[in-house]
Amino acid sequence: MTDCIFCKIIDREVPSYTVYEDDAVYAFLDITQTTKGHTLVIPKKHIADIFEYDEDLAQIVFSRIPKIARALEKNFPDMEGLNIVNNNKEIAYQTVFHSHIHLIPRYGADDDFSMTFKNNGELYSADDMAAIAESIRKNVSN
Ligand code: 5GP
Ligand code: ZN
Q1: CA 61 to chain centre
Q2: Which of 40, 47, 100, 113 to mutate to test the pocket of ligand 1 (most atoms within 8 A of CB)?
Q3: What is the 3-class SS of the chain, one letter each residue?
Q4: CA of 75 to the centre of ligand 1 (A)
Q5: Cα of 30 to ligand 1 centre, how many Å?
Q6: What is the structure's pLDDT at 1?
Q7: Phi-psi region of 22 (alpha: psi -120 to 50; beta: other; left: phi over 0)
Q8: Which pLDDT band, with edges at 50, 70 and 90, does 2 fall under?
Q9: Which of 60, 63, 31 shows the shortest CA–CA distance to 43?
Q10: How many Cβ atoms are within 10 Å of 78's Cβ, its own excluded?
Q11: How confident is the model at residue 142 (pLDDT cuts 50, 70, 90)?
């Protein structure tokens, strides 16, 4: 896609720091380096977000993540963990609309990444949960 910064990075029109590359996948350092080694994994095919993957492309892209994660772990002996984040649509903090998966190494509770999940479990009865799950289940298709 002509106006996409990540397509330009894949095509080397815009420079980046390559972490991993094969025929279908490119991984490079995120410019912000939220934590040291913050990496983005992207399909070379331009798709906007998670809703546009077919099973084959998902298999290709997501299967690369464990080995890139292990490379980060091996490379940074002080890395204690890894957050994997994938934002989809503006409301969910997506700012670049070429699908990408953030790999964010964690070095301690006070490093520069944080994420909180509010616990709203008490708002849902067991029947509510069963109905929600059943309703979603009916929408799963190939
Ligand atoms: P999002 O907010 O869409 O999940 O993440 C987009 C990410 O792309 C941001 O973390 C941002 O730092 C990164 N990014 C945006 N433009 C560039 C760029 O030109 N080069 C690199 N390496 N990263 C970029
Ligand atoms: Zn693109």
Answers
A1: 10
A2: 40
A3: CCCCHHHHHHCCCCCCCEEEECCCEEEEECCCCCCCCCEEEEECCCCCCHHHCCHHHHHHHHHCHHHHHHHHHHHCCCCCEEEEECCCCHHHCCCCCCCCEEEEEECCCCCCCCCCCCCCHHHCCHHHHHHHHHHHHCCCCC
A4: 22
A5: 6
A6: 75
A7: beta
A8: confident
A9: 60
A10: 8
A11: low
Q: What residues are annotated to the active site? A: 100
The structure's pTM equals 0.97
Go through the domains of the chain in sequence order and give each one's CATH number: 5-138 (3.30.428.10)
- Ligand 1 pocket, 31 CB below 6 A? yes
Measured CA to CA in angstroms, residue 2 lies from 5, 22, 41, 48, 74 at distances of 8, 21, 20, 13, 36
- Residue 87 Cβ contacting ligand 1 at under 6 Å: yes
